[in-house]
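debug: dumping io for the single-chain case to check the tokenizer round-trip. Nothing else runs in this session.
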Amino acid sequence: MAFEGPAGVIGTLTGTLTAHTTGEKFPLTMVEIHQVEDGMVRKIDVYTKNPHELAAFYTRAEAGTR
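debug: decoded output
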């Protein structure tokens, strides 16, 4: 879903990550803010809903543990 506003274009993204090593699934929610000037994207800021939980998911996936 995307919205155009004074800060540029704001989009919300949802999905599920799956670790190949463990099969663990992680629900992902992100917001992206795209600053647009002269019809070109000049900057993108990305925010995740649970950054600490996402980091822990990647740590577990890399270690091959749940």
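debug: round-trip ok. DSSP finds one helix and four strands in the chain.
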